[in-house]
Amino acid sequence: MRVVLDTNVLLVSIPKLSKYRPIFENLIEKKYTLIISNEILTEYEEIITQETNESVAQNIVKMLVTLSNVEKKEIYYRWNLI
Question: What's the confidence (pLDDT) of residue 82?
Fold first, then answer.
């Protein structure tokens, strides 16, 4: 299964005592493939830094970049809706 995680979903799944922790654990255990782009990765880092600290955010980003079940996709068309 291939998924794109909303930043808030990723954020609430990181703490070990979170009821949403299985989302993060399943990612680490490679039970699904996470699809990211440069923009998504930047947003993940920015929001996680705001909510935790820079060290945690950098560790999460490094992990995401190195996991074999994380696919980086380039966006070729922008809708410019926002």
Answer: 66
